[in-house]
Amino acid sequence: MAAFGLNDTIAMVMRILNEHQAIIEWWHNTNDLLIRLGLVNARGAQATRATHNFSVEWVQQSLNTVDKAGLQVDGEMGPATTAAVRQYQKRKGLDDDGWVGVLTMAALEKDTQGARP
Prior knowledge:
By secondary structure, the chain is mainly alpha-helical. It has 2 domains: 1-37; 42-117, Orthogonal Bundle (Muramoyl-pentapeptide Carboxypeptidase, domain 1), CATH 1.10.101.10. The chain has 4 helices and 1 strand. Helix 2 packs across helix 3 and helix 2 crosses helix 4 (102-111). The protein is elongated, with a radius of gyration of 19 Å. Residues 45-53 have low confidence and may be disordered.
């Protein structure tokens, strides 16, 4: 059995880094596509209170439909919407961080059968 030398270690690390870079590039391309399609904004559906955003309106309407959240559909990612998102994420077994990222968006779309307002 040959010894595993420094060059082998460096080669292995470089392969791992290259694979990691490919995954990161795929993730960025996917997010860019979702943003261009208007499915999410640059921060998922998280928006400042001053931002009127179609994606946030869709999230609010979806949460009202699937969780009877009683949210005002105003396109603002305020405390009530964030709390409703966290409750939904917790119920679905997702990371309950209040951010509507790809996994939360996919779960909402599945629960609403992809219906867009």
